[in-house]
Write a structure and sequence with these properties.
With about 280 residues, the chain is of the alpha/beta class. The protein folds into two domains: about 5-70; about 95-285, Vaccinia Virus protein VP39 (Rossmann fold). The protein has eleven helices and eleven strands. The longest helix is centred in the N-terminal third of the chain and has 16 residues, at about 20-35.
Length: about 280
């Protein structure tokens, strides 16, 4: 039977050639908290305690999946994002810290607005609109995505967190969109922006597990989603409404050019915690 100490040693031995030591330790902490309800202090004080057979089996299964480089978030089926607990699965991207920074920027800019309408385009797990609704409770929040399975997950997350967000299945690239929306004060999107040719630079655990539909664009038109959303926002943003994007840092200047060509003003870059140009805000003229 396994003790916590034996699990620690087993994980370090089995995963040392795949993950950094600190990340391996984090895996152990996450799994033992999720499956056995043990916190970091318990891992020290109860290191020789024998775990229940069911927990031991779950831990061994997780180790097997980690060796195949499956993300820990998919293994336990959940993650945390801006103080929310969200369900995640291979139909949705695992929310990134950079996206939390985008959400934080929007909240800080609009926390004093009494009543605003917000639309998130390409919502995935629903992380952006749910975090915004949680922190801007007076806002009316809407979200769209092309993927029916992603929207099912987003709706589950809304229910899980008791947050009122309206989700609709729509393809933003469909020029024939006839959906009648009211005008929005904020439109936000973290669209697919990784070029196909960048796949070779990406980690195996992303390429083999996360949905390519939400990640990649063709090399010949890497800005296809930005163009569509900028055009959509011209008709669906209120005057002086705000458009927010998470971006591929390689295309920041091109996106600014697109915004200027479409008569947006007060365009602002924001760097992420790693100093990369990762976010843009613009105001409808």
């Amino acid at each position: 039977m396994n003790t916590i100490d034996k699990i620690n040693k087993s994980f370090k031995t089995e995963l040392k050639d795949i993950y950094p030591e600190r990340e391996i330790q984090t895996f152990v902490e996450i799994l033992l908290e999720y499956y056995a309800g043990l916190n970091k202090t318990d891992l020290i004080l109860k290191s020789e305690e024998i775990l229940k057979p069911t927990v031991n089996e779950q831990i061994e299964n997780a180790l097997f999946r980690l060796k195949k480089e499956e993300p820990i978030q998919y293994i336990i089926g959940e993650t945390e994002f801006y103080d929310l607990k969200l369900k995640v699965n291979p139909s949705v991207l695992i929310p990134r810290p950079e996206t939390e920074e985008l959400v934080d920027w929007i909240i800080k800019n609009h926390k004093n607005n009494k009543k605003i309408n917000i639309l998130d385009i390409g919502t995935g797990s629903g992380c952006i609109p749910l975090a915004l609704k949680n922190n801007l409770p007076n806002a009316k929040v809407f979200a769209i995505d092309i993927s029916e399975t992603a929207l099912e997950t987003a709706k589950q997350n809304a229910k899980l967190n008791n947050l009122d967000v309206s989700f609709t299945q729509l393809d933003i690239l469909n020029a024939e969109i006839k959906q009648k929306f009211e005008k929005f004060d904020i439109i936000v999107s973290n669209p697919p922006y990784i070029r196909e040719k960048e796949k070779e630079l990406m980690h195996k655990n992303i390429l083999e597990n996360e949905p390519h539909l939400a990640l990649f664009v063709g090399d010949n038109d890497a800005l296809v989603f930005y163009k569509a959303i900028i055009h959509f926002a011209k008709n669906h943003l209120k005057k002086q409404g705000n458009l927010y994007f998470e971006i591929n840092e390689a295309y920041g200047n091109e996106i600014i050019t697109l915004l200027k060509e479409n008569e947006y003003q007060d365009i602002e870059f924001k760097k992420d915690i790693n100093g990369k140009d990762r976010m843009i805000r613009a105001v409808k003229n």
